[in-house]
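User: For a reading group we're discussing how well predicted structures match intuition. Take Imidazole glycerol phosphate synthase subunit HisF. Before you show the prediction, I'll give you the sequence so everyone sees exactly what went in.
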Amino acid sequence: MKKIIPCLDVKDGKVVKGIHFEGMREMGDPVEMASDYSNNGADELVFLDISATTEGRKTMVDVVKKVAKKVSIPFTVGGGIKTADDIGRILEAGADKVGINTAAVDRPELIKEAAEKFGSATIVAAVDAKQMSDGTWHVMTHGGMKDSGLDAVQWAKMLEELGAGEILLTSVDRDGVKDGYDLELTKAIVDAVDIPVIASGGCGSAEDIVEVFEKTNVAAALAASIFHQNEVGIPEVKTLCRERGVDVSGA
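Assistant: Thanks. Here is the predicted 3D structure of Imidazole glycerol phosphate synthase subunit HisF, as structure tokens, for the group to look at:
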């Protein structure tokens, strides 16, 4: 079954949202928002700590502990995860999975070590991809700001080989723009790997979620703005999916 996953970008203990990873504005309290989503049909949640300095990491561990007490659905935490110890702290605080991006690019062995220590099911490889002038996609690091030079499709394959259990694929070009997922990028990654892929970046409507399920074989669709701003509810999205023949979980 396809999953609907709200994403909460957390900065200094508050949920924020921007465009192209910039211009952040405050949206609310992460624990309250997580609880609301959990009670209203979300299949999973993703938290991204976008101010992951040492202090930000401490703040995030506190948030994770509070969220774990409030929600009954799985949730992933990413942002600033650099070591196996960081992963352990987040999992111990109550997260079900941990998202790793920049640290994996810097040291790919981290994915292998983490998968062996904590299990592949807990390791989500976050891939932020941006299209280049030649039509290929490069992996971006440091919050979408730095071009790693890595080909995103080849990198996704390597992440699977290293032991990642899932890929969270974000189109940097579409982030926050709300004109639909990058279907070409999403299909390229989904077709290249056998592990589940979560589509992220660009969702502006329930229709966009239906479209990414109809046109690619992603396991889940992630969205932020449309849910945070109450433009559409998760139950409405699931109803539309079912009407269009997309098999989604939940009532």
